[in-house]
Amino acid sequence: xxxxxxxxxxxxxxxxxxxxxxxxxxxxxxxxxxxxxxxxxxxxxxxxxxxxxxxxxxxxxxxxxxxxxxxxxxxxxxxxxxxxxxxxxxxxxxxxxxxxxxxxxxxxxxxxxxxxxxxxxxxxxxxxxxxxxxxxxxxxxxxxxxxxxxxxxxxxxxxxxxxxxxxxxxxxxxxxxxxxxxxxxxxxxxxxxxxxxxxxxxxxxxxxxxxxxxxxxxxxxxxxxxxxxxxxxxxxxxxxxxxxxxxxxxxxxxxxxxxxxxxxxxxxxxxxxxxxxxxxxxxxxxxxxxxxxxxxxxxxxxxxxxxxxxxxxxxxxxxxxxxxxxxxxxxxxxxxxxxxxxxxxxxxxxxxxxxxxxxxxxxxxxxxxxxxxxxxxxxxxxxxxxxxxxxx
Length: 392
Description:
This protein is of the alpha+beta class. Helices cover 28% and strands 26% of the residues. It has helices at residues 58-70, 84-87, 104-112, 117-127, 133-146, 169-182, 254-270, 365-391; strands spanning 8-13, 30-35, 40-45, 79-81, 101-103, 218-226, 230-239, 242-251, 272-278, 283-290, 296-300, 305-310, 319-325, 327-328, 336-342, 350-356. The strands form four sheets. The protein has a seven-stranded mixed sheet, with no helix packed on it. A five-stranded antiparallel sheet has the order 3-2-8-7-6, with helices on both faces. The protein has a two-stranded antiparallel sheet with strand order 4-5. Helix 1 (58-70) crosses helix 4 (117-127) and helix 4 (117-127) packs across helix 5. The two termini are 15 Å apart.
């Protein structure tokens, strides 16, 4: 009796990668560095561990506010009242009081540049489902979960110390990328170094981000500090066509935060280079076809593929093409058939789907007869013991 062949994972080795990436040693309790153009994670230190984020969690308040403006629930010109609860906050503030009505645009700058706790509460109470900051925090938590930030729980809008108010470094990086990509019209605010609101807070007019004045492409996003959280920064910079987003948290001093952040950007931009791996439409390899008019089908990528490599590496990259084969005919051009797995040493794997570059119709009677004959011949040559073993 003829049995169908069991699909086997076919692994075709390509080139060899030679030089490992040199890891960055950070003193932060939690950190992540991402090259956003390729999605490559260059550094991961406790990136999924929930930690107190301090004022860095204000980024979520900002994101929800940007959504409200986009959806027409707020306007930049709209002026909002200041409650006694908002006025009661210490720490970094805009020094608002209950006689104020403040425009949404000023409140945004008050959060981004001045890290105003009071500004956060004003927006939170305006957007909260029940009019309270606690209700807004619950909404932020639900929205974060929808966005894939699974290690984030908010107890307030500002990052004021509260039991259970946590975010992971990976979640903060995801949030930073969403702000940059979803709201490019507002992102330039994050590069502003100074904001004087109504002349009432001369001691709090400067952006605390230590990277913005260094002329290294840094353009955001948010610092954070409490006694429990330590010093942290969600940072981003663009040099040429590359953008890097990073998070550090739990550092001991503001000076250490500044030094580590600058060093991370220098390392990320100078020690890695983006290289082309595959061009769209280029034949990458061939996969075996079962019962087809041809014995193989060409595999190609649907888009240009680049990856990040250490600057001292060769132009060769370790890679494998993996598919379950032989592939049963008919095959249609554009069918996803395989994946190319690139594994540069010291960096995460990159998986690229590969597709049929052409149609392979089912073979005619003679081709099917030839295939069956070859299978039967192989079984006969293997002998009855091999056949029985395969039955088990």
